[in-house]
């Protein structure tokens, strides 16, 4: 019953926020800070509706370099709500072009200045990547990327794709890693307290002086650091859960 109530309220919330987000986009179209504002509109009410307790330790993200590439693990569609609270100032996202057909959200996403890539068309995808590199170099705007390219559904990090690392090296900007604990297989939306989520950002990794030859090693380093951080957070949550049970 609680699950059905939550899903109904979330559907209503999604539509209302979509309308508000489109209005914001129409008032200031393609402003790179629209993404942060709309992310907050989605995330803040959603965390209460879903009963998720999110703890964010993201100083290196809040105090990030003025321009950088942000990479994060991608678990599910709920990431929109979980990560919406930590999207920093003037940061846009890269996503698949098909998102633009999602009613209200797709139009909001486009008007917020985010980048839509046609993954089925290599030429258009490369052109979009060149555009984002220009944005990183000239417009004081950061790019948020899910380097796995798709949702991992809580089964661990999927192999990274090279796009985010190509962009960072081409623009000569740092990479900031954002790690989210495994929540998608643990949250229980039929309970008032449906679960705990930890978010941590890691220190920026500079790319100045690197070339495309350095991409494999850079990818390996980022993947290893993010895996270690996620495992550490998952252990912390398990330990906290056991302590809570023993205290009862």
Molecular structure report:
By secondary structure, the protein is α/β, with parallel strands linked by helices. The protein contains 8 helices and 7 strands. The chain has helices at residues 2-27, 34-50, 59-62, 79-82, 105-111, 122-138, 163-171, 215-247; strands spanning 52-57, 69-72, 91-96, 115-117, 142-145, 175-180, 195-201. Helix 5 (105-111) links the parallel strand 3 and strand 4. The longest helix is centred in the C-terminal third of the chain and has 33 residues, at 215-247. The chain is globular and about 55 Å long. Keywords: Acyltransferase, Lipid biosynthesis, Lipid metabolism, Phospholipid biosynthesis, Phospholipid metabolism, Transferase. Residues 68-183 form the Phospholipid/glycerol acyltransferase domain.
